[in-house]
Amino acid sequence: MDFDALLASVRGPVGQKTLVVTGAGVSLASGIPTFRGPDPGAVWANDVTEKGTWAYFKRVPHESWLWYLKRFELARGAKPNDAHRALAAWEQWQRRQGREFLLVTQNVDTLHEQAGSQALVKVHGSLDRARCTQRGCKQGPPSGTLPMAELDFGPLHADPSPESVPRCPACRSRLRPHVLWFDELYTEHTSYQFEHVLRTAKYATLVVFIGTSFSVGITDRVSEKGLLNGARVISIDPSGVSPHQGIQVVAERAEVVLPRLVDALAA
């Protein structure tokens, strides 16, 4: 798909409902390694399917926390790139047109928020939040979280052990990162807004995937033919490879093509 066809699809008919789904590729230009991508910093090979699990946390909660904190620190120093800013501008253009728009990100970084996106669902959680492991606690599932900035990781860094893992201020159970692990379900926490995403996908007339490998549950569900009711589906991916039949590909980097797109919309 060339740029003119992309622009025409985004402009679309009056009343178009747009769903955008972003993956790790949209944050690569901000210096955050992907999980599965071809970039040198990709962490997929680092036993992610073992360490990114509830089972691993239960076995060695201190090692789980240290593994996540290392990645979180890298993400905290990152800044939004041109793709993040363009997506926020795209949302504003949609609003001015009186059109529905939802941005769903698989990323746990905070770059979309920093760039100004408001119609945003973080379907895999967020690195700036933690939650209690005790279900029903006000700081835990199904809906509770607390700011990561309020936690003291000094004891954990000084003497890593299960006993030095931060505790919930409400019930003293262990705290965990507020992220969706590989052995968990999207229904684990209401903030993932899984049902809202599926409802939006069902009624969307345009679905755009950006920087995703289509290797996690949310992309599989959203791209299902039985869910999408005749929506045009586009993937922005520099590889130029279509992940599924019927998905048109824009072979460009997101940080290059998206600013050009919003400039054309505003013209």
TrEMBL record:
Q: Which keywords, in A-to-Z order, does the entry hold? A: Metal-binding, NAD, Transferase, Zinc
Q: Where does Zn(2+) bind?
A: 132, 137, 168, 171
State the active site.
124 (proton acceptor)
Which superkingdom? Answer: Bacteria
The family database entries (PROSITE patterns) matched by this protein are listed as:
SIRTUIN (PS50305)
Query: Which Gene3D superfamilies does this one have?
Result: SIR2/SIRT2 'Small Domain, TPP-binding domain
Q: Which segments constitute the Deacetylase sirtuin-type domain?
A: 1-267
The record's listing under InterPro entries reads: DHS-like_NAD/FAD-binding_dom, NAD-dep_sirtuin_deacylases, Sirtuin, Sirtuin_cat_small_dom_sf, Ssirtuin_cat_dom
Q: What is its EC number?
A: 2.3.1.286
Matches recorded under PANTHER family: NAD-DEPENDENT PROTEIN DEACYLASE SIRTUIN-5, MITOCHONDRIAL-RELATED
Report what the protein is called: protein acetyllysine N-acetyltransferase
Which organism is this protein's natural source? Pyxidicoccus parkwayensis
Higher taxonomy: Bacteria, Pseudomonadati, Myxococcota, Myxococcia, Myxococcales
